[in-house]
Design a protein that fits this description.
Elements lengths: L2 E4 L3 E4 L6 E8 L2 E8 L8 H12 L1 H17 L3 H12 L2 H7 L9 H7 L2 E7 L7 E8 L8 E7 L4 E6 L1
Parallel strand pairs: 4-5
Antiparallel strand pairs: 1-2, 3-4, 5-6, 6-7, 7-8
Helix pairs in contact: 2-3, 3-5
Length: 165
Amino acid sequence: MAIQSTKYFGEIDIDNTNEYYDSEITLNLKPVEVTIDFNVLRNIDKEYLNQIEIYIDSLKTHETSIRNLFQTDFKENGFAKAYVDALIEYQDMEELEVLTEKSNGNLSFDEKLLSELQLLRIVIYPDKDDNVFAVYDYTISEEITNDLLVVIVSKDGGIRLTIES
């Protein structure tokens, strides 16, 4: 039994991990759930666990990069634009307007919606076979939609977007 003390998840037996570990952090003054999902992996290298903690320490920087990606993807009519368009088409306009009341007045309504997306959770997959390292789930509001704008970060640093329900 080799116990590693972690900043976010308490003590982890790196030779016999649980299936997952959850934590809640504050990012940009909002709570965000962070999970390490070991899936089938039942041990982890101490150094790799340290790298995961460093990644979590840097989430503010990663989140800023993702927000910039949202802007680019939106302008290129990608998944970010499709997510916002679906909100406008299928959700109650009054509810959406309430969510954007404090947004930058110089933005269009759809750009305001994009700027108001909230990060709900981040799941880190140390052993995922398909090269996925982390998944970020964003929503405009859990109260009005189950749809998520999902950011998938690969182990090689690539980033792609998709929409999930």
